[in-house]
Write a structure and sequence with these properties.
Shape: globular
Largest sheet: 5 strands, parallel
Order of helices and strands: HHHHHEHHHEHEHEHHEHH
Strand order of the largest sheet: 3-2-1-4-5
Number of strands: 5
Radius of gyration: 21 Å
CATH superfamily of the largest domain: HAD superfamily/HAD-like
Number of domains: 2
Number of helices: 14
Bound molecules: magnesium ion
């Protein structure tokens, strides 16, 4: 039995790339909450189904760029007001799990038994996240059509340089002349992206948006509601999905998880597990 345990520890050490001593210490860490995310992270990291879904989303987005350019009354932003017919065009993308794939950070969290934000700044500063499948082709297409590209992210301002470096390293369009990367914490911007969308809409006709959270399209206030009311939002905006708004599936994390806890994250892991279990619908 003892040798079996040792074997198990050795395997985990190898997987996590750790020395035996530090790995042995980590064996004592309770990873049971983080391990509930394992299949979601494996889906993102290993399945062609996930990649294919993203490719098809971005292909559909590219096709709608053409439609939007022809129709000057077309706007994708609820914040767009007044006369915008002759404004130059822009698209807005979220960054995490929309442009940059941070599933490696999620994998580290499971292996090491930690939760965001632990390790997040270090991961961001590595500036080494790969691109979400299909996004590069989509952005290059939008760029070739003269559409300005804005990255509106809730990454903290501290990560601005690393995020910019990461995007440029991937060969994605980044027009330095328009300051295309808008971080949380800059210019007193909070988590709600409404004010950033509104600012962009003053100078541009926003023709399309992409994200992995419903707050990448609507206000934080409208989305911070019960599970049932959040589900209703998908119908409320059914005209926008697939034409003006493009959602990347993120099974790993998001505001949807917060809704399971009535939008107040529990103070204990046991409570989180209990609320998750209670949210399952067996009927
Ligand atoms: Mg995101």
């Amino acid at each position: 039995m003892k040798s079996l345990n040792m074997k198990k520890i050795l395997i985990i050490c190898m997987v996590a790339g750790l020395g035996l001593q530090s790995c042995s210490d980590r064996e004592k860490v309770d990873r049971s909450l983080q391990e509930q995310s394992m299949l979601a992270v494996l889906f993102a990291q290993t399945s062609p189904e996930y990649a294919a879904n993203n490719i098809q989303t971005y292909k559909m987005a590219a096709a709608n760029i053409d439609k939007a350019l022809k129709d000057k009354s077309w706007t994708a932003a609820l914040e767009q007001k007044g006369n915008f017919d002759n404004k130059p065009t822009a698209i807005i993308l979220d960054v995490d799990e929309t442009v940059l794939d941070n599933s490696a950070f999620q994998a580290r969290a499971i292996i090491n038994g930690f939760s965001y934000p632990t390790g997040w700044i270090e991961w961001g500063n590595e500036a080494n996240a790969p691109a979400v499948a299909g996004v590069k082709e989509f952005l290059n297409y939008a760029d070739s059509k003269g559409v300005s590209i804005f990255y509106v992210t809730n990454r903290v301002a501290e990560l601005k340089k690393a995020t910019k470096d990461n995007i440029i390293k991937l060969g994605l369009p980044f027009d330095q002349s328009i300051n295309p990367l808008m971080m949380k914490g800059e210019n007193s911007w909070g988590s709600d992206k409404t004010s950033r969308r509104q600012l962009i809409s003053e100078d541009y006709r926003i023709i399309l948006m992409a994200g992995d959270q419903i707050t990448d399209f609507i206000s934080l206030e409208e989305s911070a509601v019960s599970i049932q009311k959040r589900l209703e939002l998908s119908n409320k905006y059914s005209e926008e999905w697939g034409t003006k708004w493009f959602m990347i599936t993120n099974p790993m994390y998001g505001k949807w998880e917060g809704a399971i806890y009535n939008n107040v994250y529990p103070s204990s892991q046991d409570k989180a597990k209990q609320l998750r279990l209670q949210a399952l619908d067996p009927k």
